[in-house]
Amino acid sequence: MKEILLLSIFATTLLLFYGVASLFSRNQASSVKRRLNSLGQPKTKEEIEEEKSLMERAIVPLTNEVRKKVGSKISGGKKDELELKLLQAGNPFNLTPVDFRLIQILFVIIIPIILAGYFFLIGYSTLQVILVLMVGVAFSLWYPQFYLQQKAKKRRMQALKELPDFLDLLTVSMEAGLGFDSSIGKIVEKEHGVLGEEFSRYLDEIRIGRNRRESLNSLKERMNLDELTGVINGILQADRMGIGMVNVLRIQSDELRDKRKQRAEEAAMKAPIKMLFPLVIFIFPSIFIVLLAPTIIQLVEMFTSLE
Q1: Does residue 186 surpass a pLDDT of 50?
Q2: Could you give the C-alpha distances from 122 to 15, 111, 126, in angstroms and in order?
Q3: I need a surface site. Which of 95, 121, 135, 190 has the fewest CB within 10 A?
């Protein structure tokens, strides 16, 4: 009976995902068809409305209405905080603060219901189902924030690896006669890592009229990386005092390389200690079993034969 229930749950979930995917594919095909038809004679408003799919006529307006209501419930400060976290995480899936909060709400509703329904069907008691429901709610509240934190941490580590080479390229470009922003523009054309994306955004902010100090401070907030903060502070100080940026960048690059070497040495010193735990827990017991098991079997056989 349990196997049949599990099979039915799996089939239902699979069909649900297939239905959603087919709905989106039909919507995409219908949009392409409408663009092709638009090249011919212009159609009336009624004909255009009739050609719209169920997704465009019902689901999309309903989704927009829900997004407006959820957005109205988020305060300005909370929205700015969520937006900063999304930027630090690299803006995954191009989510807005409203979209992220809507995903959190859907997680809190859907995941606990699925878990509770599953454990109820396989025969768990009411108390156990309630405990599972509480665990599902806690997981649904925790996981989206944890996901953003991990994405932001991964981007910071990647930016830390790219920073010394990025500064070297910036120094060489400025020594060749280019200005600071022009040098960054040349580097961004070739570099497509985390720093390339962030400095490309910096250049976009410069183009829309923000000054260099505001754009660099915004970059510091988005990255939240101590090493990059030190570099930017040195650049701003050199710009304010009229000091040559090339010397500042060269000194910063040398310091970052020394720090990277120290981090590598520290990680190498920690490696034996980290390897000790899996050795003691997994490797040594296996070795003892392989070496001592035949001897133990012979001793047991010998004592049983004496009896």
Answers
A1: yes
A2: 21, 17, 12
A3: 190
